[in-house]
Amino acid sequence: MENKPIRELVITRTFDAPLDLVWKAWTDQRMVKRWWGPRGVTNPVCEWDPRPNGRINIVMEAGKELGPMAGQRWPMNGTFKEVTPRSRLVFMSNAIDEKQEALLENIVTVDFKESGGKTEMRLHIAVTRAVKGKTEFMLQGMEMGWKQQIDKLAEELGGI
Q1: Best CA proximity match to 60, nearest among 71, 74, 78
Q2: Secondary structure (3-state) at 40
Q3: Backbone phi, then psi, for 83, in 5-degree steps?
Q4: CA-based torsion, 120, 126, 131, 136: positive or negative
Q5: Across the strands, what pairs with 122?
Q6: Neighbour count for residue 104 (Cβ, 10 Å)
Q7: Which CATH number does the domain housing residue 98 bear?
């Protein structure tokens, strides 16, 4: 029996971009590096291998626009579970600490559908585990962070 997620978030977005481009933005490591993370965050490390059992290793770094958080690094890792070209990505991701231990575990499902030259994306994030006392800030900022990240993706694609 599967445990009920600690927190779930669903974001549906229609991009004024063809499916092939949206798919590429999610599967090309160089493109992911440009839009991954909330505003003010860059990715000095971005390893993204979208194939079954492919690895994810990203280190997000806060820029000066994030004020007192500037320079902070937020590493994550994970594994792709399902890759159905032009249709679906499923991956497990973990916010990790300096010892590479998972603080926050997620299952992320991204579904894509093209209609009239536009692409509808449905993103579902289910937090399956969170270490108490270390993840409250992450959980509080989850929705805002993901929405900013998807806004950056829209900009990468050339508009909404």
Answers
A1: 74
A2: coil
A3: -135, 105
A4: positive
A5: 12, 111
A6: 21
A7: 3.30.530.20
At what angle are helices 19-27 and 136-157 packed, to 10 degrees? Answer: 130
Domain containing residue 25:
7-157
pTM given for the model: 0.92
Q: Alpha-carbon distance 91 to 111, whole Å?
A: 12
**Within a domain: residue 39?**
yes
Per-residue confidence at 159, pLDDT binned at 50, 70, 90? low
Q: How many domains does the chain have?
A: 1
CA separation (Å) from 8 to 26, 34, 92, 118, 135? 21, 25, 14, 26, 15
**1 lies in a domain?**
no
* Domain-embedded: residue 124: yes
Q: Could you tell me if residue 28 is inside a domain?
A: yes
pLDDT tens column, 126-145: 999 998 888 888 888 899 99
Whole-number Å distance between alpha carbons of 25 and 32: 6
